[in-house]
Amino acid sequence: MSRPQDAQPARSFFPFGNPFRVIAPKGSHMSSQLLALLKAFEARLAERLSKLMFKSKEEILSLSWMTSAMESLRDTYNDIRTLISDLELPVNDWNDKWIDIYLDISRNVLDICNAFSSEFSRLNTCNLSLKYALHKFDGASSKLFVRAFSSLDDWKHHVHSKNPRIEKCSTILDNLMGSLDLPKVKNSAKGKVLMQAMYGVKVQTVFVCSVFDAAFSGSPKKLIDLDVADMYSWAPAFSRLQSLINEEIRARFSNGKFSVLVELEVVDAVVKEFNPSIQRSAETINNESLLKTIEELSKAEEKLSQGLDLLAKGVDGFFKVVLVSRDDLLSAPTSAKSVKNCAFGSNANQKAIL
């Protein structure tokens, strides 16, 4: 993958070697039915990844694209729930070690979702300063204009501050990457299918979350370059998507942008058009150029607020999918019922597993 010269080295994706070699025991024959289930799952994953390819560079890291990425991840989690139902795995195939691994992974995913939610709250709080400024600009006195410009200064100060919870996401993502080194599956073709499918889910999770982490932290160092083997049918779609997204993010940061979030960068650019030394007089208030800039800020702020709201709902929906599956696993009786009726529930619209 080509990178700008000043780009930081990417973190290694396989610190413990290729995990799939650990989970593919010899002698586990995959029937045509099992192979069809796996191929169908991987085909849907490849299709979701392909749909995240942008038509223009302006779409990269727009809040709309980020919402689509989160919804794609949620759909993949729901898809693996369907796969587990179709496999009809018995409970005794899921020993305590596997359950502990899932609980640890899901805890990390929930922590990341909470960190993202805290960033939405921070940005929405910053936007209150923009809304206040726009409200004061509607006035007809120089005193109100002074307050409006003061609010714009407050926005610039707070929007460039760091979120401590986002700063911790890299550590959480490192924990998720460590979970790729999965335990051995007993001589089970069904187990092999499930592990190969879960590997795809985890790759998509780490990729999407690392992109969000880089965008919210304002640092290309947060990006993770994942090296996926060609043996997976969805690998080409994933590699193309990852290469284009990561390279564009690094290019934007190298060009001096304070944020790669499109809507946030637009607001910042409009705010910079306001001259803080402008005379706050009656003539200034009716200045055509200033009124046009105020109108542009109003539109940019509205688009940013709406985008953040949709993305926040997308993350919340994903959070609930992971939380419900975790609760089901913890409350499931340890009997010989199938996973479909025990660990992962029977509600097709709500249950999922990492």
The major sheet is characterized as: none
Shape: elongated
- DSSP, total strands: 0
Taking pLDDT < 50 over at least 5 consecutive residues as the criterion, the unreliable ranges are: 1-27, 333-354
CA-based gyration radius: 24 Å
Helix content: 55-70%
In short:
The protein is mainly alpha-helical and 354 residues long.
Written overview of the protein:
Keywords: Membrane, Transmembrane, Transmembrane helix. InterPro entries: ROH1-like. It comes from Lupinus angustifolius. This is Protein BPS1. With 354 residues, this protein is mainly alpha-helical. It has one domain. It contains eleven helices and no strands. The protein has helices at 32-51, 63-87, 96-137, 142-159, 164-167, 169-178, 189-217, 235-254, 262-271, 282-285, 288-331. 34% of the residues are buried.
Q: Can you give keywords for this protein?
A:
354 residues; mainly alpha; 11 helices; 64% helix; elongated; disordered N terminus; disordered C terminus
Task: Give the arrangement of secondary structure elements.
Elements (H helix, E strand, L loop, with lengths): L31 H20 L11 H25 L8 H42 L4 H18 L4 H4 L1 H10 L10 H29 L17 H20 L7 H10 L10 H4 L2 H44 L23
